[in-house]
Amino acid sequence: MLEQQPADVGFEARYTWTLPLVAEWIEREFCIQMSVRGIRVMLKRMNFSFTKATYTLANADEEA
């Protein structure tokens, strides 16, 4: 899962993982329901870090 995007494991057109998507994936793969908060705590204990996705426009006006 670490190298895959959400779309690679069957989620519809998603490019980044979010905690709700991770919760849904865990439930689907392991039949275990976890809260988003619990997943956040678990991932923090596993030394995962979070960043907000940033986007750049391919055709953006550099001068603007």
| Poorly predicted regions | none
Strand content: under 5%
If you average the pLDDT, what whole number results?
A: 83
Largest sheet: none
Q: Which structural class is indicated by helix and strand composition? A: mainly alpha
Gyration radius, in Å:
15 Å
**Could you tell me how far the N terminus lies from the C terminus, measured between alpha carbons in angstroms?**
38 Å
The count of DSSP E runs of length 2 or more, i.e. the number of strands, is 0
Report helical residue fraction.
25-40%
Number of discrete helical segments:
2
What is the H/E string?
HH
Note the overall shape.
elongated
What would you note in describing this structure?
The chain is mostly helical and 64 residues long. It contains two helices and no strands. The protein has helices at residues 19-30, 36-45. The radius of gyration is 15 Å and the shape is elongated.
Compact overview of the structure:
The protein has 64 residues and is mainly α.
List keywords for this structure.
elongated; 2 helices; single chain; mainly alpha; 0% strand; 64 residues
Map the helices and strands.
Layout: H1 19-30, H2 36-45
